[in-house]
Design brief:
Two copies of one chain form a homodimer. The first copy, chain A, has 329 residues and is mainly α. Chain A has helices at residues 10-14, 18-32, 37-48, 54-66, 71-95, 106-109, 112-133, 136-159, 167-190, 195-222, 225-228, 234-237, 243-249, 254-265, 271-283, 286-305, 312-327, and strands at 99-100, 103-104. Chain A has a single domain, classed as Farnesyl Diphosphate Synthase. At the A-B interface, helix 5, helix 7 and helix 8 of A face helix 5, helix 7 and helix 8 of B.
């Protein structure tokens, strides 16, 4: 297993489970259907843009790697995606984001109120499906994960303007906010094979998810606007503290530190202020250190996969690591 | 069983389960505890004002009426309250309400973002507790109810500015938004006794909850500001269409109808406009008709209770009907 293959495409990763992913789309449409026209309008808006189905992909690949994909796994994959969409709805709603995946958010296209309620609707529908499956293990995994997601979001609230936010705070946050659902998807897939696969695949997902989030946060320091579709330094503009800054902060001299303090004191920092802080973070090794941290997690994810039976599904899981770290979301 | 006893107090209704309700407070504190200081700060803010615990009260009384209250019922009662609180958090958040029960809302005391996330936190914690109980019936009841709640809220969105909102639309809305959780609490309590009590106690709760909501909506037309703590005609001010208006609308002449249309066209109606519409609604029998509808539901709730064994718990459930209809929330 090598993780340094460049330019892995999502289509390649999804190839072993392509047919089942099409069923996930149908399942999503079935699960969200209601007899309230407004609910159906919002669902249609949400499902019109076919998302990447990254969590369903990991769930189905995990199941295929250690067992067989049955209709149950297709439902579980839809549940994982619904929970993901419901967190995005609430994120966009509290951020007042106008766009998501290039489309108007529910927040913008309908209303803030509809976005909050619809998030609750999708989440409760997802739980209802889990209950109908009568799988105590699935319920335990997903009820734990959905609670962790909210804890992660609460930790993230503290990460804004939080210059005392430590590496360990950051790690707790990304484990809860991002890694938990990805790990949960892998663990739900593992249930198709048996108890012994749950640990390795969950830990694979945890490390994959954490690496993914670090890579995503790094983009804010390294990518161009053309590559990400959002302005460079957007996190800094919003006073959001992530790993590169946390590492660099402890190594800064008073003049450098003052640049950061000034930016955090400024409700609408200038591009030049942001560029100056990015430069200091880079000069103090914040970017390199964050890359190393992501690499460690990639290594651990690779190691966990070694326990999983060899095959095209395992290869695709391995390729998903590269995809995550290189492409981000 | 008589429902025309005036001035039933909450303390009287709660007397048969007073000790267990104290345990519910402890259970709530246990369930919401987290290792994130911000989460605990918000929980403390929420639990500082001891709510009426109306849903836990109904759950425990239902259990006592047909069986025995065990620690499981105390946990279920805490779950019902947590789900209620989480819906209030999201309601206040989308309404930007500054006060609830005379205290600043989480929205106002912390932030809009924290209110949305905390609602998700409490809800997912509640589901986690249900999963830990390993009771498939409880999970089926509460996952159905929580989804109905969101459907009710979505139906309510349509009730604003909705002069084509019908009596049947209104009834669907209040059944989902208000009656579902109250019925769910009664049905969860009934599980302590056995399968045969689920139907009668659920239907008791459905009718009680619907009567409660109609009575609450009536207050907007009949009560004084001193009695309710909110301005008279607040629903009309916010263009919210409820039963008295729906009934009266179909009986209005063109001049009267124009008063309503003008109010709905005005983003900030004057007190005099509101008073004029209230007067027309009353003159056209909207208030009387809504009272009659509530009475029918009270009757049905009473009838359902006749199936339940005689005793102090059943008497308290009967008294809760009077309490609901006379006091509102």
């Amino acid at each position: 297993m090598k993780s340094d293959v460049a330019n892995v495409t999502l289509a390649e990763i999804q190839a072993p489970v392509r047919r089942e992913l099409d069923s996930v789309f149908d399942e999503l449409a079935r699960v969200v259907k209601a007899d309230v026209p407004l609910v159906n309008d919002v669902s249609e808006h949400l499902l019109r843009v076919k998302g990447k189905l990254f969590r369903p992909t990991l769930l189905l690949l995990s199941a295929q790697a250690v067992g067989q994909i049955t209709p149950k796994e297709v439902t579980l994959a839809a549940v994982a995606e619904l929970i993901h969409i419901s967190t995005l709805l609430h994120d966009d709603s509290v951020d007042h984001s106008p766009l998501r995946r290039g489309q108007p958010t529910v927040n913008a296209a309908f209303s803030h109120e509809v976005a909050v309620i619809m998030g609750d609707y999708l989440y409760s529908r997802a739980i209802e499906q889990l209950v109908k499956l009568k799988s105590q293990e699935s319920l335990e995994i997903m009820s734990r994960v959905t609670n962790e997601l909210t804890i992660g979001e609460m930790r993230e609230v503290v990460a804004f303007d939080g210059l005392d936010f430590s590496e360990s705070d950051y790690e707790s946050m990304i484990l809860a906010k991002t890694a938990s659902l990805i790990a949960g998807a892998c663990e739900l897939g593992a249930l198709a094979g048996g108890e012994e696969w749950r640990g390795p695949l969950r830990r694979f997902g945890t490390n994959l998810g954490a690496a993914f989030q670090i890579a995503d946060d790094l983009l804010d320091y390294t990518a161009t606007e053309e590559a990400t579709g959002k302005p460079v330094g957007q996190d800094l503009r919003e006073h959001k503290v992530t790993l590169p800054l946390i590492v660099a902060l402890s190594r800064m001299n008073p003049d450098e530190r003052r640049l950061v303090d000034d930016l955090m004191a400024d409700p609408s920092p200038e591009d030049s202020e942001i560029a100056a802080v990015i430069q200091v973070v880079d000069a103090r090794g914040g970017i390199v250190a964050a890359r190393e941290r992501a690499s460690e997690m990639v290594q651990r994810a690779e190691t966990e996969l070694e326990a999983v039976p060899v095959g095209s599904a395992r290869d695709a899981l391995s390729a998903s690591i590269t995809y995550c770290v290189e492409r981000s979301r």
